[in-house]
Amino acid sequence: MKDYYRILGVSPTTHASDIKRAYRKLVQQLHPDINPDPQATELIKEVNEAYDVLGDEAKRALYDYRLANPFTSIVVEEPVRHRDPAYKRRSGYRPPKPTVDVQRELMIRTLPYLKALAWFGIFICCVLVVDYSVPPTESVETVTAIRKKGLRNNQKMDMLTNTGRLYEIPYEYIPRIYVGQEIIFKESKGLAILIMIYTKDEEVYIDNLATLYDNFSFLPVLLAVFSMLGVSAVGSVETRFNLGIISTFLLIFTVILMV
Known about the structure:
The protein has 259 residues and is of the alpha+beta class. The chain has helices at 4-8, 16-30, 39-54, 57-68, 102-133, 218-231, 237-258, and strands spanning 137-149, 156-161, 166-169, 182-187, 194-199, 205-206. The longest helix is centred in the middle third of the chain and has 32 residues, at 102-133. The chain is rod-shaped.
């Protein structure tokens, strides 16, 4: 076995950078343009061969092992290739990566906000209960203008009062309400939510109103039920999330009708 360290003029403990420096120095000395000696060509071949081994970390480690154990042979097994080129050797067992349910994670993160909105919905329901329990107010206004609108089968009228209040009246009340007539508006005292409209002589009562205290009175009831279910933290994440979404929509509709 050739002694590559002797050829490069370095020791087995020499650092890789020093080996590289020694190789360059020898190449400059033995280059045919500088050294006309015929033996220089053979020497530079050995120098290149030595540096090819010692300049590579893996080759140098294998060379050092063989140099220290000259009677030990190293057998490198070639990988067995399958006859079928489409065959691919199975790799070792790899545990499956845990999958993250993005939708469930989003639900879990949203639950605290939905719960806060559910508490706010309960608060709104309590306000409405108190507002409805207080004796309502009544205001007397005079009809100053009436304007019919809509198709023949679905006619309505806009009723304007002396205070500037404009309200839409269903078709069946058109013949019974006229300009100059006194109208009483019954409203809740706190939130001024319309409860009923009737004439001063009490001949006409309009109680099919699109308000929280009449046609849409079911909204606060549903809001209270779903809001209490939303804050109870009972059931799975999906169930609580769905309850929170329903109570949020009910809360939005309720607030819209309050203003």
